Amino acid sequence: MPLELREVKSDNEFDELIQCECEAYEDPFNGFYGLFRPDRGKTQKARDGFKELRDRQLAWHKHDPTSRWFKVVDTDIGDKVIGGANWNTYTENPYPTPQDHPMEATWWPEGEPRQFANKLLDDWLQPRSRKMNRPHMMLAILFVHPEHRRRGAAKLLVGWGAQKADELGIEAFVEATDNGKPCYETHGFTYMNTIYLDPMKRNPSPKWMEMCDYLHTPIHCYLMWRPEGGKFEEGKTVVPWDNKYYKNW
Q1: Reduced 3-state DSSP string for 1-32
Q2: CA 25 to chain centre
Q3: Could you read off the pLDDT of 36-54 as tens digits, one per residue?
Q4: CA distance 125 to 118
Q5: Whole-number CA gyration radius for the chain
């Protein structure tokens, strides 16, 4: 099979990588992706929005020593990028204290758009400091281009992190979409709970409803956990919700 897994090492690789990410998350549309990209489409504003998204993700990566990006290329078509993933390796607890406001959505305009985005980010990210407060691997992002799915790219991307977690003797987490959940299950991930993001409120303004339409809310994902070694045995494996690290589950 002409697919190869490669680690992303240079800045100039991010242009094709993030372009693939955008095309993957548009088909089908992923509301979590939309939360990080205010401008989509083919207009000049959308092109500027892509550059901002690319540069922001590159900056986040370069300033995070736990971050490693990987890509899958097809060597039969000129090393075209057909998928990618961002893994974080936390050898220590990344959340020594609870986080009430983990991330400010500075890429959204101030006012209701940013308030809307901040609410969803808080509802999504706050629980991490309670549920992932120990050494672990985190699969933050994974995508495969719609024209190249079911060829084994996701298996390569997930497999790298699963192997690394086993080498380090630590757990792993992922927040899965409906389409991704079966793939993660084959790599030892177990369903923990569903994360629902619903920004609806009483008497929402037209701008608030516009944001709801833009992100196709409500949106959801599945928090999945992979035990050390990737083998879950009912009644034997110590699950997070019974563990002392998760008193506030």
Answers
A1: CCEEEEECCCHHHHHHHHHHHHHHHECCECHH
A2: 11
A3: 999 887 778 878 899 999 9
A4: 10
A5: 18
Q: Using the CB atoms, write b or e for 93-104: b if 16+ within 10 Å.
A: ebeeeeeeeeee
3-state SS, residue 202: coil
Alpha helices in 36-73 (DSSP H): 44-62
Query: Mind giving me the DSSP string for 80-126?
Result: EEEEEEEEEEESS-S-SS--SS----TTSPTTHHHHHHHHHHHHHHT
Report the side by side order of strands in the sheet with 219-226: 3-7, 67-74, 80-90, 136-144, 171-176, 219-226, 190-197
Smallest CA-to-CA distance from 70 within 94, 53, 88 is with 88
- Rounded distance between C-alpha atoms, residue 245 and residue 130, angstroms: 8
Terminal C-alpha separation, the chain: 43
Strand, coil or helix: what is 165?
helix
pLDDT tens sequence across 60-69: 999 999 999 9
Q: What is the pLDDT of residue 241?
A: 62
CB count in 10 Å sphere of residue 34: 20
pLDDT at 244 exceeding the cut of 60: no
- Model confidence at 248, pLDDT cuts 50, 70, 90, reads very low
Nearest to 197 by CA among 27, 34, 32: 32
Q: Looking up tokens 């084994």, which residue turns up?
A: 152
Separation between Cα atoms, residue 53 and residue 45, nearest integer Å: 12
